[in-house]
Fold this protein.
Amino acid sequence: MRTIGKREVEDMAVGAAVLASGGGGDPYIGKLMALQAIDEYGPFQMISLDELPDDAFVCASHMLGAPTVLVEKVPNGMEGVGAVDALEKRLGRKFDAIMPLEAGGLNSLLPFQVAAAKGVPIVDCDGMGRAFPELRHVTWTLFDIPACPAVVCDEKGDVVTVEAVDNAWAERLSRNAAITTGGSVFMADYAMTGAQAKKASIPGTSTYCEQIGRAIREAHEQNVDPLPVILDLLGAFELFRGKLDDVARRTEGGFVRGYAHFAGIDDYAGRECELRFQNEHLLAKSGDEVLCSAPDLIAVLDIETALPITTEGMKYGARGVVIGIPVHEHWRSERGLEIAGPRYFGYDIDFVPVEERVVESANEQ
Amino acid sequence: MSNKDWRIGIDVGGTNTDAVVLDENLNLISAVKSPTTEDVMSGIENAMEAVLAGEGVDRSRIGYAMLGTTHCTNAIVERKRLDRVAVIRIGAPATRAIKPMIDWPAELRTAISDQWFLVGGGHEFDGREIAPLDEDELRRIANQVKGECDSVAITSVFSPVDASHETRAAAIMREALGDDFPISISSEIGSVSLLERENATILNAALVDVAKTTSESFIAALAGEDITDAEVYLCQNDGTLMSAEYAMRYPILTIACGPTNSIRGASFLTGLKDAVVVDVGGTTTDLGVLTHGFPRESMLAVEIGGVRTNFRMPDIISIGLGGGSIVRQHEDGTVTVGPDSVGYRVTKEALCFGGHTLTATDIVVAAGAAEGVGDPALVADLDPELVKKARAVMTEMVENCVDRMKTSAGDIDVILVGGGSILVPSELEGVARVLKPNNFGEANAVGSAISQVSGQIERVFSLDKLGRAETLEVAKGLATEEAIKAGADPDSIQIVEVEDVPLAYLPGNATRVRVKAVGDLKI
């Protein structure tokens, strides 16, 4: 059991933005909610997956909808709690702890406030190890853990219980409920035992976010380049350094798809890099050569500050380091690639782990 | 019309207050630079007196007076002269999870407000009501804050989509507090993002008195120079003007107009519409980008006095290089320039002015690159190797920044302005031409004098209703109307910015559209 105070929350918000892989929404609102919750309930209690008893009962907590709505219609603070309460009532059992669904972006910090209000600890794990566009893009799906019964709750107190045939339908039905109630809701879902959580979750991701944020903060305090520390911490690879000279976006089925083009600078002068994104970055290419693809993480960090640049925040002239971060092995399984590999997102290439691509690329040059 | 067709422009900077007079064809008749004073206003008076005394100035023809000033910025930074604000947020049951002003610096919060209220109401992204507006609660609040505050800030959820709850709430407050009571409503101030818009609205409400005093003193100073019937304007940070009356309602929009004025002035003085503008001052060098005649805006959240807002500010990078930057040679032979500076004391402390500090100015004087500045004899003994190294450092600092601001690999024009522009050589790597306009020192004041007027709208539209093309046309029409309302000549109006950003993770084609229309002042 570990205590999470305001400093830890600030660091986590920065790390969560890195793991968001360019999407996931700005963690700013989640951070402020968490800070206010600390004022109200005291510091958060966080347990590791190992500390979670096998027979414990846990569920995931998160928002669903448009981050752009959430930054305008700020939550009431009881939506997440209302969803968990309703799920407990439906299942006739209390939860012993709450898990984040998503380690990247906004959803990384929102469940802390929910756990505090419920008076239970948060588990240091999540179902993605990054940010992904859909509710079903979780490692729990790979282990046949159903999202349903899932509960949607809005700020007015409206509650919708979703009993879907599979996690794909859970996603569709929940998202429609989210739109009807104003574009941003909280959910409680993926109820499971401690034993299931240990087997199917990605461990330690909140701590991981905190470490990344702390590394960036300390590097700034000491006036040193945070990038080497971050690469080391994430086991990540520098793929490219460049200046953004073209970016285009369009909406398709509720998702923002687009590409960004970088012209190389420093050691990469004369080369180019293209990123494809659907809310999150999914593919990085240099000419015909694939540098990194989903489900591995692609993040663009500002060259000066090492702070992540989101797909929404990308603009002409931005100077970024493109990095590739190996994703948790759960995602690299056959089933993992089926629901989150390059072909799922419409790119007709085989998944090759980023560490192998980097070696190949080095051998060729 | 009449012969009241000349203008006077004044820009208050950290070091200098600049003033210019332009004739009816925008020819520069007179220009002066005078030190900024601690109370700001006496510096404005000095500059005004000097510029009007210039040769060829016919003060009877001055019909327009424009002021770009740091009054409001200073008030926030110094936490002085701020109004007490009652903060009203409309959005319950939503938004309880984050209180207003939660991450403000404590002193600023204490200086501005200890009263905030959350009221039922607000809208969804598509214009439906979250809840009906709680008018009884608003009446109760009005009576409670009566006599306890100087100003009211009202922010309603999704007011950029539907402002009706804000305007109704303002009307209810006025019933109790009086028609003239200052009330700031967020839909007139910021864009989508509740907390940032609320922050800007609260700051705006806190600045009403500062803006009023500033405008009134400016008008009084003009009267002191026998200019009594000029139209008086204040500069906004987007390079356009607002009337003195408007400025008293939206003082926050004057924040950071200095860099904008400098970029716009540089454009006017050179006739260029696209370039990097390098403004070298006493302590820092600011770089901005001119695109289509306007400053490129930053996409990042902008902090004002430690408060996060969603203002569009010019995309400026600042480096610690100025005329007063201190030059040091280290034991290993390397030379550094800045970031510390003797600032406005350069004309006393630099070696070439008889002082005892080696500054960037001394380096260029010693290199023979600054005719008419200081006394070259006083720096004749400087080690030529040191001079060479220091110049190389300064040039590289500027070149790196220009490169950071460029948006394509091709060479770009650079316009050099500001009192310290002698520091920058006439050729730079990656730069097509380095232009140094006449009167480069007063580009800021020229920028303030030639400011245009604008209208802007920013809203969430559902493209499913009209389609993208038609929606954008509707938005352009609304922005044009706003510009005409602000005093633009309808024939000169141009749409200078169109931005549509789809709302991520949400079907239905909800898109945030922002359009800005700009025109010349109707004279």
Remarks:
- The CA atoms of residues 32 and 518 of chain B lie 29 Å apart.
- The mean pLDDT of chain B is 88.
- DSSP finds 15 helices and 23 strands in chain B.
